[in-house]
Design goal:
alpha/beta, 288 residues
């Protein structure tokens, strides 16, 4: 029996997001289209996948079992499409990648040099973004590929793969800051002092308690920290490369921390051959 890929995607999205309307927004389709696709899938399977008696649809026991198989089918389709792209000679004319400041592998210039040798005629655009801004750039089609701080979960239309090397994150202050004289400040001492935290354009982040300033990039956080305005969580490589000896690392309990780094791309519009080559390079090589 043949199942519509659109119906499988609609079912998986509705299950992940908890509503048909949310799935419609995510897949950029009308709610009636999503409802019809799921109803057709239920008819094809002769199963009820969602209990619709409440305000929001809830997976039935059969729906929960079907979901895992649908996810396997969609993942296999994605792998097949990626393979076909890798084997294709139709290189995309333009590639936009997003590089988070959490991606600090030292040999990324070497990677770019190799990319330039392989794809001399392609127009490459590099953007800097963090958090939900990265997701928005991929979902809107503004970017094709991203490397950013890893998250536990992603929207159903975003594919991810973890890089081999995590990023070391530490807490830093300027030499003249009062906290610089304290080797391992307590949580109370940190809370009593201004924090400079990452705050993205889309979604933002949870504002810390107490005094706080924010910026949308780690490089801006670093610059504000250098001026003595507060303490900040920063990628260690960024401090070593751009701050010199202007900052002091704080070592409270639990710090420094290792932050996973993920490569992300849109399932609906995966990168072409050049982007796939770059993705494979991010994932297969350990730099640093």
């Amino acid at each position: 029996m043949q199942y519509s890929p659109e119906a499988l995607e609609a079912f998986a999205a509705a299950a992940a997001l908890g509503s048909f309307s949310a799935a419609a927004r995510r897949l950029r389709k009308s709610q009636s289209t999503i409802s019809t696709a799921i109803a057709n899938l239920e008819a094809d399977l002769d199963l009820v996948l969602f209990d619709r008696t409440g305000r929001l649809p809830v997976l039935t026991p059969a729906g929960r079992r079907v979901l895992s198989h649908v996810q396997e089918i969609l993942a296999a389709n994605e792998r097949l499409e990626a393979l076909s792209v890798r084997l294709s000679d139709k290189v995309e004319p333009r590639l936009t990648i997003v590089l988070s400041d959490t991606y600090g592998q030292s040999d990324h210039i070497g990677l770019m040099q190799e990319f330039e040798q392989r794809y001399r005629d392609i127009e490459l655009e590099c953007l800097i973004a963090e958090g939900d801004d990265v997701i928005d750039l991929l979902q809107s089609g503004r970017a094709h590929l991203a490397v950013t701080a890893g998250q536990e979960t992603y929207p159903s239309d975003i594919a991810s793969a973890r890089l081999a090397e995590p990023t070391r994150m530490g807490l830093f202050v300027a030499h003249g800051h009062p906290l610089a004289a304290i080797t391992s400040p307590s949580a109370e001492q940190l809370a009593a002092t201004r924090q400079i935290y990452l705050n993205t354009y889309v979604g933002g982040s949870t504002r810390p308690l107490g005094l706080a300033w924010s910026a949308p990039s780690y490089l801006m956080l670093l610059e504000l920290t250098q001026q003595g305005f507060g303490w900040a969580e920063l990628p260690d490589w960024l401090v070593r490369q751009y701050a010199g000896d202007t900052l002091v690392e704080l070592t409270p309990r639990g710090w420094p921390r290792l932050l996973p780094v993920d490569a992300l791309w849109s399932r609906a519009a995966p990168p072409g051959p050049a982007g796939q080559w770059l993705l494979d390079s991010f994932l297969s090589e350990t730099r640093g």
